[in-house]
Amino acid sequence: MNNGYTLAEVLITLGVIGIVSAITLPNLIFFYQNKVLESNFKKSYSNLLQALIYIEPSSLTLIGNNPQAGSNDSEFYTKLFTQYNILDDMNKKNIFGTVNTYKKVKSYAKITVDIPACMHVPQKIAVNGSAIGGMYNCFANWISIDTNGPRKGPNALGHDLFYFGITSEGKLIPLGEGIVYSFWNFSNIKYCSKNSTDILNGIGCTKYAIANKCPDDNTKTYWECLPH
Q1: Which of 7, 9, 70, 183 yields a CA-CA distance of 20 to 30 A from 100?
Q2: Which residue, among 165, 143, 168, has the nearest Cα to 83 in the 3D structure?
């Protein structure tokens, strides 16, 4: 009695395995990528909070008094950057030189958009691969982080690019928090939603990332509902 499998049975089995893999593998990869993004964000956010601890309050009172648009050489930003082990400065002599590296960024919905002019993009690359930036522009002070640096994707707002404001008292404001001050009021859902087509969609996602809450579905975590 022959207990072996026929060629047809083997091919059918392989076909079923292939179909199941084709269905599940993309979701597994997406899940893994999002877990990496989550881990990178937590590390970068923690590093930023730690860096701010070591900056004296006296330097915090100086920010906002510099009328030069695009300035990031004030005492505050100088001290902030020295808390990081900086490997490279993408700006060199041009304060907006970083755009030559980023070219374009993606919105939260993964649509390619122009770099947000007021908030800039991170300029300093740390040895761990992340990037940090900050400047006074558009009547406010901004801090930005790229959790895995400009040379790794997705370079998307709310995925690996996150923005903060900071007050003269030293309070860090995750954009999306709803505080109305100059250009910091990005609490509207159009600034963090998979359904938004606004060019700044993702700017207001920092609040949701810190709270780990999905902006479009309160039954999911922030990282579970990132747009593909």
Answers
A1: 183
A2: 143
Mean pLDDT computed over every residue of the chain? 81
**In the sheet that 86-89 helps form, which strands lie side by side, from edge to edge?**
86-89, 124-126, 131-137, 140-146, 161-166, 172-174
Single-letter code of the amino acid located at 144: S
199: closest CA among 108, 70, 99? Answer: 108
Q: Which one, of 41, 154, 40, lies nearest residue 104 by Cα?
A: 154
CA–CA dist 71, 77 (Å, integer): 9
* C-alpha dist (Å) from residue 176 to 114, 117, 148, 203: 20, 18, 22, 7
pLDDT digit string, tens, across residues 57-101: 677 665 555 555 666 667 888 889 999 999 888 776 554 445 556
Binning pLDDT at 50, 70 and 90, where does residue 155 land? very high
**Could you give the CA distance from residue 224 to residue 179 in angstroms, rounded to a whole number?**
26
* Beta strands 124-126 and 86-89, pairing class: antiparallel
Residues 6+ apart with CB under 8 A from 76: 55, 59, 60, 62, 63, 134, 141
Q: For residues 224 and 30, what is the distance between their CA atoms, to the nearest angstrom?
A: 10
| One-letter amino acid for residue 10 of the chain | V
Q: Which two tokens stand for residue 162?
A: 């996150």
